[in-house]
Amino acid sequence: xxxxxxxxxxxxxxxxxxxxxxxxxxxxxxxxxxxxxxxxxxxxxxxxxxxxxxxxxxxxxxxxxxxxxxxxxxxxxxxxxxxxxxxxxxxxxxxxxxxxxxxxxxxxxxxxxxxxxxxxxxxxxxxxxxxxxxxxxxxxxxxxxxxxxxxxxxxxxxxxxxxxxx
Length: 166
What we know:
single chain; alpha/beta; five-stranded mixed β-sheet
């Protein structure tokens, strides 16, 4: 049983690193530092960053962009057999999209407050979901990554707060 847990933790760390790299890539291109990766059967379907600034689209968060691209690529409107890895705890809009896409699993890195402080806005993005039961929905298991995965996600927001990239 211990070996299976380590396999899951290793997989989560692997894809979290990619989500964080995607967030750095977006920041280096002048965008906001958020990244997301959608995986199915241990294969990356899409890897995206936040493109709000470049598209002038306030809904172009990394998670939403990844969901849109994954649905196009897979030719379906639900992602029941997929997992999403996000560099940060999703905002209510992104969480709603993850929920409605019926993704089986969400793994996120930094807490919303960490990113909010670094980006200079109020941490309202997570408050509507806390203590409401929204995190226990039928389709999606939600995991806050710990250890190295959490550290690299937190470091992203410390770096970008200072205006530097990786």
